[in-house]
Design a protein that fits this description.
about 140 residues; alpha+beta; six-stranded antiparallel sheet; elongated
Length: about 140
């Protein structure tokens, strides 16, 4: 059982309904546990077998880049499905991904949104470099 220490890492927690642009870097399936003595969350690759840890749960730890800093987002498996949908659109069409939270009941639910990039210049034209050099020489 290996522990992944994330001491000193930033967790991305924007205010409710505030969309924050993100660039996903990496994600990893882990187990998160609360250690009451230290009042700290520990992350493990395998499910821990000790009774000292509370609230053992399976999560996906998403590493993102936003506003010149790397952040971590802890996702439940249901939240990860929404992330995969937005991420597949992001990979297909380019553009921007956004992360925001909304309060549902007593918990903050995590959401991901995708905005395709605007192509204001019209369709992209392809040129062969030799043709351009030939035209410039005339």
């Amino acid at each position: 059982m290996t522990e992944a220490p994330f001491i000193g890492k930033n967790y991305l927690k924007p205010p409710e309904n505030k969309r924050v642009p993100i660039v996903p870097l990496d994600f990893k399936k882990m187990y998160a546990c609360w250690l009451p003595g230290l009042r700290y969350t520990l992350y493990f690759d395998e499910e821990p077998k000790t009774e000292e840890l509370k609230r053992v749960r399976e999560i996906i730890l998403l590493e993102v880049f936003s506003a010149d800093t790397k952040y971590l987002i802890e996702l439940a498996p249901e939240d990860f499905e929404e992330f995969k949908t937005a991420y597949s659109l992001f990979l297909t069409y380019g553009g921007e991904m956004f992360f925001y939270q909304r309060k549902e009941g007593r918990r903050m639910k995590k959401y991901f949104d995708f905005k395709p990039k605007k192509n204001a210049a019209g369709p992209i034209r392809k040129y062969i470099a030799a043709d351009r050099i030939e035209k410039a020489g005339k």
